[in-house]
Prior knowledge:
By secondary structure, the protein is of the alpha/beta class. The protein has a single domain, classed as Rossmann fold, CATH 3.40.50.300. The protein contains six helices and ten strands; from the N terminus they run ββββαββαβαααβαββ.
Amino acid sequence: MLTTSHLQYRYPDNERSFVFPDAHCEAGASLLVHGPSGCGKTTWMHLIAGLLRPEKGELFVAGTALHTLSPKELDAFRASTVGLVLQKPHFLAALTVQENLSLFQQLAGLRIDKSHIAELLEALDVVDQLHAKPSRLSQGQAQRIGLARALVNHPQLLLADEPTSGLDDTRTALVAKMLLEQSSKRGTTLVLVSHDARLKSFFPNEIAFS
């Protein structure tokens, strides 16, 4: 599912160049990428998601060589293959939860499937927020709906960026188990990027950045 080799990236306005360790994750498996702040974890995730193009090296996701794609091809690949779970999910404030997720389907060129949206929210125990506006959501509800949005387009790869930052031990365990459970249920490959050492007990397959 995911293989990187000799991956490097340099920001245009920064002389610092990140050199990343090689990574491999089988389809349907999970991988924890951890390390201190500033070591390039989020940059690496953006490369995997097709948001950035590597300066050097090779990057294969779901059998596709991302390092050879044009910007337009990268956008199409990301929309069809990758789901992103952000530390702080952002929603359109004027739309309900259902409308936010429906819009995400539309932007990927998919048919709006309200039954699928309801099923996802039911599985994550937030279906009662289907018609709520984002401003009414608690932090935990917003996290779960952010995960639903990442899964709504049936991605092959689920990327989670610092999903437990600022959470206590109990909530950290709940979020980790939720990510693993939902990705396993759907056969989705899960890659979690974090500096949170507490997550190591949940992810036996890991890579350390320095």
